[in-house]
Specification:
globular, alpha/beta, five-stranded parallel beta sheet, 7 helices
Amino acid sequence: MSVNHRTIALVAHDHKKPDLIEWSRNHIELLKHHKLVATGTTGGLIAKELNLDVHRFKSGPLGGDQQIGALIAERKLDCLIFFWDPLNPAPHDPDVKALLRLCSVWNLPVACNRATADMLITSPLFANDEYLRDVPDY
C-alpha cells in the first residue's frame, strides 16, 4: 500500500476536539497526503479549521464509531487517531470500547493521546510504503 494512500481515522470526544484540531494542525503537511475519515462533528471541525478533505461518517453516538469499526473489520483503515476523554464517560461508551477492541483484534495502530499520535504519524514505518502490518487471519 502506498504511503500516499493510507487511510487515517480521526475521532475525538467533545472535550478533546480542540486537542485533535491542534494536533492535526501541527501535522497538516503529513495528513494532507492521506485519505482522512472521521466521525461527523470531528470531521466537520477539521475540514473547516484546516481546509482538509475529510470523509465524514455519522456522529459517534449516532453510529459513527461503528462505521469506523466496520472499516477496521473490512481492512480498509490503516490507523486510528482517537482522542477519547477518560474522565468523562460517553453515553455510547460500549461503542468506544468496541472500536478500541477491534484495533487490538486486527492489529491496527491506534493512538489515544497526543504523545502516541505524534510518535505514530512521524514513525519511519508509517512513511515506509513497503511496511505492511501483520493482520491476523481468523
